Amino acid sequence: MAMPYSPFRLRDRLSMLGYVLSGNRLHQIAFGLFVLLILAALFAPLLVPHDPLATHPQDALTPPSATYWFGTDQLGRDVFSRVLVATRLDMLIAFGAVGLSCVAGSLIGVVLGYFGGLVDTVTSRFVDVLMAFPLFVLAMAMVAALGNSVMNVIYATAIINLPFYIRLARAEVSVRRHLGYVEAARVGGSGHARILLVFLLPNILSPLVVQASVNLGWAVLNAAGLSFLGMGVRPPTPEWGILVAEGARFITSGQWWVFLFPSLALMLAVLCFNLLGDALRDSLDPRSRT
Amino acid sequence: MSRIVWRILSTVPTLAGVLIATFLITRVLPGDPAVFFASNPAMSPEDIERVRAALGLDKSLIDQFWIYLGALRHGDLGLSISTGQPVATEMLTRLPASAELTVFAFLLAIAVSIPLGVAAALKPDSWVDQLCRIIATMGVSVPTFVTGLLLIYLFYYILGVAPEPTGRLDPFMFKPPTVTGFLLIDGPLAGDWATTWAAFKQILLPGLTMAIFALAPLARMTRASMLNVLSSEFIRTARANGLSRRKIVMTYAFRNAMLPVVTSLGMTFSYMLGANVLVEKVFAWPGIGAYAMNSLISLDYAPLQAFMLIMAGIFLAVNLVTDLLAGLVDPRAGLN
């Protein structure tokens, strides 16, 4: 007997995922990449062939070989190990920043859209000011102001992404707050908190999740850009942006492997998140399909 | 008319917020400028106090803000601690480099993306459409600094056709007399074609890097907007009435599809302002972003403050112009 589909049952959810993925080869690849990224983030330190921080001065700047798959850098450190180990830090920054801004931004936005009034006006002005700066420049200034650390890169990236969630959640809630089911809940005696958390938030979750998956790519780009400029993550910690910056010095002398492999890792990660965002949009939010 | 005035006035609160934000952000930055000035060991605590008073750091935060505003009114952006020069003059000498690069890349991106987007929309699922899709996906996935480095490796190191990526002009060449500060305009004005060509070769790779970055959103937007308009009823009517394809596409569809594109032009320009810093770093481009970054490393914050202010100012101006343009393109839209 076939049971009706329920989004709360794991098997149904998995089969739904399989259905969404089966339609599009690119989305399958993206999902595969995503799994690889997570695995690398979790297990990289166990998998790498060399210690990412160990220097081998006699092997400095050797091209890719059987011993050093991606070659070595100026200190003879194994580029492959460094790129792989960096996955964890980059994923930590991306997921941390997006998680923070998604939770904080949607809560703020939901409250603003629901209650409106003076707080809404003032906060919207504040968001306007935030959006009046080129966001990357704002992130730079914030890391400079808060201090040069990984945590501050996460905070800065979270803050520059906040406006998107606030605006999205606010808009979604303000069109729904007078709909029948909300009125019904109110008549039924639900308080504001219950209406917001039980009736409104679950209904606007899909666009928020889509936004979050798109933002993951931005967050990786943003963090890598900051560390490329020497902000946030400090050498010798392996991180993709720093690895690219270190490799950039050897481009004009032809040692391409030092910058190319971390660049590729960066590109693949961002590409993967962007494609996943598209896939999620197609399945969760069919109206905005392009 | 009154709506235009109202739109212009509506930037005032944001501008005020920007001023407060830039002021505050440099106040919380670590490091005391007075101590930096007084890093000479011969200086006593009294000397440090005197420097502090001279810099106005002993006053309350609100007084400092008024002093900051008063100085801004005279175009005074403070002194750079590391060079001792007024930040305003340093910024002015570097602004043309950044502006030339950004405008060059912006025009390049528009010139490629809009025809590409239109062509992709006219023939869905053709090779042009596939190309457009690939560019749109790659453009948002490849970090600007990686694009720049790849271009350098390919065109400078392997092919050897591009000049060394070090700034706007070969150090052995003389700059043409400054009129606009844009080498690509000043060169021809002075009749100095050799310098113009050299400057063009220098700007090509960084310009291309930024253009590739800006291409993606523009092409994607043009394609989506054009597809949307092409499927609308007035196009069907025009087609049914037997108008030529050229007239339908160029006169009716294209003009109506431009509104969202104009809006996204403004957004893209602001993203480019942010990406500028990275591209300037990769190509050793002597612009304001690189200047602000270099000052930041030596804990010199006045340039960063000025940079943020200039960026936000340009951004607000661009948004204003975008909204006014959108109102021009489609009188129903915008301005509300």
Report on this model:
The complex is a heterodimer of chains A (290) and B (336). By secondary structure, chain A is mainly α. In chain A, 71% of the residues lie in helices and 0% in strands. Chain A has one domain (7-47, 71-288): Orthogonal Bundle (MetI-like fold). Chain A contains 11 helices and no strands. The two termini of chain A are 37 Å apart. Chain B has a domain at 90-299: MetI-like (MetI-like fold, Orthogonal Bundle), CATH 1.10.3720. Chain B has helices at 2-9, 11-28, 33-37, 45-55, 61-73, 87-122, 127-141, 144-158, 183-189, 193-230, 233-240, 245-282, 288-297, 302-329. The longest helix of chain B is centred in the middle third of the chain and has 38 residues, at 193-230. Chains A and B meet through α4, α5, α9, α10 and α11 of A and α2, α7, α8, α12 and α13 of B.
What is the annotated CATH architecture of chain A?
Orthogonal Bundle
- Rg measurement of chain A, Å: 22 Å
Percent range for helical residues of chain B? over 70%
Order of helices and strands of chain A: HHHHHHHHHHH
- Outline the low-pLDDT stretches of chain B: none
> What proportion strand of chain B?
under 5%
Tell me the name of the CATH homologous superfamily of the domain at 90-299 in chain B: MetI-like
Number of helices of chain A: 11
* Helix run count of chain B: 14
From the N-terminal CA to the C-terminal CA of chain B, the straight-line distance is 12 Å
Looking at the overall shape, the CATH architecture of the domain at 90-299 in chain B is: Orthogonal Bundle
Helix content of chain A: over 70%
What is the CATH class of the domain at 90-299 in chain B? Mainly Alpha
Major sheet characteristics of chain B: none
Distance between the termini of chain A: 37 Å
CATH class of chain A: Mainly Alpha
What structural class do helix, strand and pairing data of chain A support?
A: mainly alpha
Query: CATH homologous superfamily of chain A - what is it?
Result: MetI-like
Oligomer: heterodimer
Keywords (chain A): Cell membrane, Membrane, Peptide transport, Protein transport, Transmembrane, Transmembrane helix, Transport
Main location (chain A): membrane
Family (chain A): Belongs to the binding-protein-dependent transport system permease family.
Membrane topology (chain A): Multi-pass membrane protein
